[in-house]
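In this section we walk through a basic example: taking a raw amino acid sequence and producing a predicted 3D structure, encoded as discrete structure tokens. The instruction is simple. Fold the sequence below.
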Amino acid sequence: MGYLRYLRPALIAILVLWAFFLIHPFTKEAVVIKDVEYPASLVLRQGDLVNYLNGNLITSVDEFYDVSSEIKPNDTVEIIVLRETFPYNYRSVTHLFIAEEKDNKTNLGIIVDKTRFSNLRFSYSLSGGNKIVVQTNQSNAVDIIKKRLTINKIHDFSVYKENGNVVILTSEVKEKIIPLIETKGELVAKIGNETFFTTDDIEDYCVSGVNCVMHLYPYANRTAEGTEVVWNYGFQLSLNKEAGERFVDLTKNLSIKSCHLDRCLLNATIDYYIDGKLIGKEEIYAESKALPYYKPIFSGQAPTRTDAEKRLRFAQSIVAGKLNAKVVEVSEIEPLHPNAVKLSFSIWAFIIIFSSALAFFLLKKSKVFIASLALGFSEMAIVVGTISGFNAIVSLQTLIGFILAGVATFAYQFYIVRRVKKEGAMKSKLIEISKKLNVYLLISIAIFGVLVFILPRISGPVLIGLATILVLTKNMFIRIIEKISL
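The resulting token sequence is shown next.
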């Protein structure tokens, strides 16, 4: 096991460097694409940095929307973005497309926002965001809004009632939230001109794809003009008995349209409408004719995978329940705890420095101070880097977890130093100290492993810190004390 003496320092150095790249504390002055849809999504991605729009240099969100406001439907749009292929390494990507019309407005399919200082995603309570006031008389509006936002993978939000309205606080851009609120969500499935079922007939729907049907795959669509790849998406619905049996009467007189291998399609489809707009359709197979159908597959197509994923989540969120609501006010909010981030990191750093100073005071060895300091800040970088790598939202609770991770650093270093001060640094004693400390660390990991299901944002950073200590830094710290004492 002697090779671990050299492997651990190298691994810590690699992890700290990789954490720096994950945290990404320096960004270009630009605007970032927060959301993208067709036609821009054919080439552009979420996270691209907008550099030029129709020859105009873009350095702010206002500049982007000022230039885009001059673009008319069917105009050719040229956009140049910077795409990060490796941390701090960018390549230029140019995309030409035709602007579309949507809701009587020009649609580029691009939503931008200002860049963040780092890859850490801070909650609206720490970084500010949007306050969206919703007018509705619906008693279950709060529950339905929460479902719609969650299904659309918007996790940083708070929804509550205030002065007869519903208020949404979120760090997400308003352009992603408003359509989810103002879409009433009246789903109607028709076969021909007859209604098969409506939203009220749906008893359950598939969201996760576990123990139910949900699909997303590319499909070669062959037409007279050639072959284009589109993306099919769909998810399973569960209907009540009346709706399922209604399918019998609606299909018993249908004939076969076409066959491929051993499967034949009927000459009608199940057409899905949301608020009167056709949004998807499902083919009907001959083997289903005149039989009760309780598990239809809401299906649709989109030009890109990005659009298919968005439309899939949007349809799932609408099935969550109808909502009669209107956004009446949107305003920016300041951070609820503007100094919390600086304060928590300052406390964490102070704990590491205090632990190092205490180690020096007890052992009177300057190298112990340096080692304690270096390992403490390495643990700090690894914890923060891992949180950034998981793209987790840093909330006030996460900051508490960061401070507790610092406390874990202090606890194990103080335990080792106190025992060495009292009993000496003989190899047998250091092995005993290491084994005893392993027990404490494993018990702590077990405790926070359970708590992670109850308080994930607090326990997550602590678990990462404890695992780092157990596997890497504890043994390094003991090894350094052993070498100093020889």
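Looking at the output, two observations stand out. The chain has three domains: 4-24+338-485, 31-114, 129-333. The mean pLDDT is 92. In the next section we compare this with other chains.
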